[in-house]
């Protein structure tokens, strides 16, 4: 794909001959979106007095078209018209100046939204909120491509399969703006990019998966309030609803302070706050003193929180653990059964439960927990002929309590294990269950796992007995 990328202000971009193509003519932003934009701009200008600071407003995708007869360049807006038009309305209210942008707004929806937003902006006394030259204080990442096909391929990637990455990019930009210390900002950005870049080669382990399938679900799946995440929900949880009333270059909510005590030589909390840069460079990220369901504070706290759970995810599902036989057994279970052999819905459910448990109890009885998680998930896999996305929610709802809540609230690991045993559907150990299809694939994968341990397997359906043997062997090591 032949593309060019530039960073520029709206003022500079609007000097080009921008066009809103017919297929992009609907303008759908409502009052809520405008209010959010104005509030964000207001916050930025109140907290950034330096001329070199700019408010980052995402990516604009342009198809650069050259007219054959005149060689005139036309800049067709493929993605970004909602933001551009909204900025133009604000600018018109401030300066009563029209920028030359070609668009025929014949749609009643578009005209209604422009008119409503214009009235709303006028009612906000915008002149007391934003400077007249505010367009010079905003920056876009502008992506140009001369191929219209490439433009829509890129657009589809960003807004279809890649929509999750867009949420991650928004989170990065939003929270970096809150960090005032230059050294801290640079270290934080490098750490984020390193984590994200490494993950892009492995779809099952990136920041996108971490936020969508682990962090958001661990925080939001409470009781029977169960629904699936989307981009707006991710941004609402990790951006809009963050705590802004705090010194954003200091750590807050270090509940599990002892987990970081070795690194800090038992320093008190004030010392930890003073040594943030040392902490962010620390290799023991999975021991950072945060908890999954704690409040999120904007800025450095958000990044350290992310670094911790990215490290936990890596530790559990990617890094070899050769020095611990019990964790080698866990690796064998994950690699044989879950990494590539089972539905992604079950895979991410297994990963979610393991991360939640590890956050609560660490390595205490972790292998036994993972085996019982597989007992729960595996029996549902064998019983159900087809698995859908909603199957995971149904498993949680069909249990006597929400298993995620049970883990978070449990006083002892045995409480969790007992709950799983009580809520796992029974299978007749002597029944004739197929070894064909997806059910058979699961059973063969589980048998392969058992073979790595050296257990003489008579019946792969007798899982409680198998689990007891595995734990007995591991305890002797």
How would you sum up this structure in a few lines?
The chain has 477 residues and is an alpha/beta fold. The chain contains 20 helices and six strands.
Task: Please give the largest β-sheet.
Answer: 6 strands, mixed
- How many DSSP E strands? 6
Q: What is the H/E order?
A: EHEHEEHEHEHHHHHHHHHHHHHHHH
User: What is the CA-based Rg, rounded?
Assistant: 26 Å
Please state how the strands of the largest beta sheet are arranged side by side: 1-6-3-4-2-5
Mean pLDDT figure = 82
Number of helices: 20
Structural class: alpha/beta
Helix content: 40-55%
Strand content: 5-15%
| Total domain count | 3
Given as residue ranges, the uncertain stretches (5+ residues, pLDDT < 50) are 160-165, 198-205, 256-274
Please tell me what the overall shape is: elongated
N- and C-termini, Cα separation = 54 Å
Pfam families: DUF7834, GmrSD_N
InterPro entries: DUF7834, GmrSD_N
Main traits of this protein?
477 residues; single chain; alpha/beta; 54% helix; 20 helices; elongated; six-stranded mixed β-sheet
């Amino acid at each position: 794909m032949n593309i060019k990328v530039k960073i520029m202000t709206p003022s500079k971009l609007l000097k080009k001959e921008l066009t809103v193509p017919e297929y992009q003519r609907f303008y759908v932003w409502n009052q809520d979106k405008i209010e959010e934009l104005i509030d964000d701009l207001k916050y930025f200008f109140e907290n950034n007095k330096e001329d070199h600071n700019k408010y980052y407003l995402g990516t604009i995708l342009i198809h650069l078209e050259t007219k054959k007869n005149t060689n005139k360049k036309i800049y067709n807006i493929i993605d970004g018209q909602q933001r551009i038009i909204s900025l133009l309305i604000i600018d018109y209210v401030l300066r009563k100046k029209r920028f030359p942008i070609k668009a025929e707004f014949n749609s009643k929806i578009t005209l209604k939204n422009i008119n409503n937003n214009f009235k709303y902006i006028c009612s906000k006394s915008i002149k007391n909120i934003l400077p007249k030259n505010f367009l010079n204080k905003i920056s876009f990442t502008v992506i140009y491509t001369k191929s219209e096909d490439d433009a829509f391929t890129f657009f589809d990637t960003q807004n279809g399969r890649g929509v999750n990455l867009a949420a991650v990019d928004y989170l990065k930009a939003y929270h970096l703006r809150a960090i005032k210390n230059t050294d801290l900002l640079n270290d934080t950005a490098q750490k984020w990019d390193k984590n994200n870049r490494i993950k892009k080669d492995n779809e099952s382990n990136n920041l996108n998966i971490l936020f969508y399938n682990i962090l958001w679900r661990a925080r939001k799946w409470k009781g029977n309030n169960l629904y699936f995440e989307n981009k707006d929900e991710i941004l609402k949880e990790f951006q809009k609803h963050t705590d802004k009333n705090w010194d954003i270059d200091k750590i807050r909510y270090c509940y599990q302070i002892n987990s970081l005590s070795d690194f800090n030589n038992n320093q008190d909390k004030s010392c930890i706050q003073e040594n943030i840069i040392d902490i962010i460079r620390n290799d023991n990220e999975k021991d950072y003193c945060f908890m999954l369901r704690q409040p999120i504070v904007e800025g450095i706290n958000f990044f350290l929180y992310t670094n911790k759970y990215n490290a936990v995810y890596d530790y559990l599902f990617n890094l070899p653990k050769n020095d611990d036989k019990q964790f080698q057994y866990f690796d064998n279970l994950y690699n044989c059964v879950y990494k590539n052999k089972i539905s992604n819905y079950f895979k991410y459910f297994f990963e979610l439960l393991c991360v939640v448990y590890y956050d609560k109890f660490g390595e205490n009885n972790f292998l036994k927990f993972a085996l019982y998680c597989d007992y729960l998930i595996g029996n549902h896999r064998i019983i159900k002929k087809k698995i859908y996305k909603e199957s995971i929610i149904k498993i949680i709802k069909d249990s006597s309590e929400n298993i995620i809540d049970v883990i978070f609230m449990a006083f002892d690991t045995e409480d969790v294990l007992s709950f799983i045993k009580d809520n796992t559907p029974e299978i007749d150990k002597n029944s004739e269950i197929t070894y064909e299809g997806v059910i058979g694939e699961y059973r063969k994968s589980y048998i392969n796992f058992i073979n790595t341990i050296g257990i003489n397997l008579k019946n792969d359906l007798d899982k409680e007995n198998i689990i007891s043997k595995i734990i007995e062997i591991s305890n002797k090591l």
